[in-house]
Amino acid sequence: MLVFVLNAGSSSLKYQLINAETSELKASGLVERIGIDGILKHEVGENKKLTFELQIPTHKEAIELVLRILTNDETKVINSISEIEAIGHRVVHGGEYFKKSTLINKDVMDKIRKLIPLAPLHNPAHVLGIEICNELMPNIPNVATFDTAFHQTMPEENFLYAVPYGDYTEHHLRKYGFHGTSHYYVSNEAIKILNKKTSKIIVCHLGNGSSICAVKDGKSISTTMGLTPLEGLIMGTRSGDIDAGVIPYLMERKGLDSNQIINYLNKKSGILGISGISSDLREVIKASNDGDKRSKIAIEMLCGRIKKYLCSYAGLMQGVDAICFTAGIGENSDLIREKVCEGLGFMGIELDTEKNKIRTHGTREIHNESSKTKIFVIPTNEELVIAKDTYNLVKSK
Ligand code: ADP
């Protein structure tokens, strides 16, 4: 079954065409700057990469363009749109409504809309993406896969904030957690390798946005992101954990309103804010190697925060069988992995620094022989989870 996987953002759109039975990736791409000017980067297989710069005023035109490219003579991977049998949508917020992926109907759409106050930047774009697919491919079933769903197994003591309980029941104030599809995929891959009935796994999803998840027996029991993706680790431009008292203090001192302070914490902070160089860790590592002090401290802070959560999750689960690193930084930066694992031998976590440096594609083990805890690098694949969930739901419809 050919599944079109769509991740619609406010001015961008990521897509993949996947054979869900064989896991074969037929084509993938990214449309950016929708409504500004427009750029489409399209990939077929490993080698064929195409870039188109043209006016893309709306999401509808973006999706039409992608469908044309998939069927056009020069870039063709399918003969006709009718070969697409289902569409899988990535949806950021499923609130407490959705504990797993679901076929989309009117009720599901209403609930995704109801959750807009919890994900004001993301859920409206997803609704738009689904509506356009309904219009352009009217008889094809649509499935939603939620970033929050995997974390719905967290126990109350791990998702509540210590504020008056009524604000949870009345205003849905709680930790939801994000990156759930990635945490699910990576922990599941680790479980296959461990081949044990019970397991304690910590997944470190370290990209531009980053989060850690404690996965016990295949279920998320705690994660670092919260009501919004701002909580937890230090990220590219997000502060992560911060004393709530900082907010009124800075609002008063700098004359900021609530939008401006959230923008400050989401877009101007994190690695970018500390280093003053970039949100891209590669540039910050380079600057640190060249002697830049603020870049060096940014790296120390980033790794210190990861280590703090790693150790607290090991404590929470009373042990850890495997630590998994994934996403842009987790998969590619031996420096960050080494710093995070440094000094944790007392907990049975021992990295093999040579194996850690080897750069290859795919899943690999980077612990040494005496390490009680296994350490893996596992490339994430959220789109494959969406394609498989879509296939399973549509097949059993
Ligand atoms: P997103 O959250 O946008 O999906 P990614 O998972 O693609 O982000 O991760 C992007 C981050 O990965 C950037 O900060 C980038 O600098 C970092 N990164 C990619 N390759 C390396 C590398 N070799 N060393 C250090 N950081 C890297």
UniProtKB/TrEMBL annotation:
InterPro entries: Ac/propionate_kinase, Aliphatic_acid_kin_short-chain, Aliphatic_acid_kinase_CS, ATPase_NBD
Sample GO molecular function, one term: magnesium ion binding
Pfam families: Acetate_kinase
Pathway membership, UniProt: Metabolic intermediate biosynthesis; acetyl-CoA biosynthesis; acetyl-CoA from acetate: step 1/2
Cofactor: Mg(2+); Mn(2+)
UniProt KW keywords: ATP-binding, Cytoplasm, Kinase, Magnesium, Metal-binding, Nucleotide-binding, Transferase
Subcellular location(s) of the protein: Cytoplasm
UniProt-annotated binding residues for ATP: 14, 205-209, 280-282, 328-332
Top EC group: transferase
Superkingdom: Bacteria
CC per GO annotation: cytoplasm
Binding site for Mg(2+): 7, 382
Record-marked site positions (Transition state stabilizer): 179, 238
Binding residues for substrate: 90
Reaction catalysis annotation: acetate + ATP = acetyl phosphate + ADP
CDD domains: ASKHA_NBD_AcK_PK (cd24010)
EC number(s) recorded for this UniProt protein: 2.7.2.1
NCBIfam families the record matches: ackA
Family per record: Belongs to the acetokinase family.
Cited PANTHER family: ACETATE KINASE (PTHR21060), ACETATE KINASE-RELATED (PTHR21060:SF15)
Biological role stated in the UniProt entry: Catalyzes the formation of acetyl phosphate from acetate and ATP. Can also catalyze the reverse reaction.
Protein name from the UniProt record: Acetate kinase
Taxonomic source organism: Arcobacter venerupis
Lineage: Bacteria, Pseudomonadati, Campylobacterota, Epsilonproteobacteria, Campylobacterales
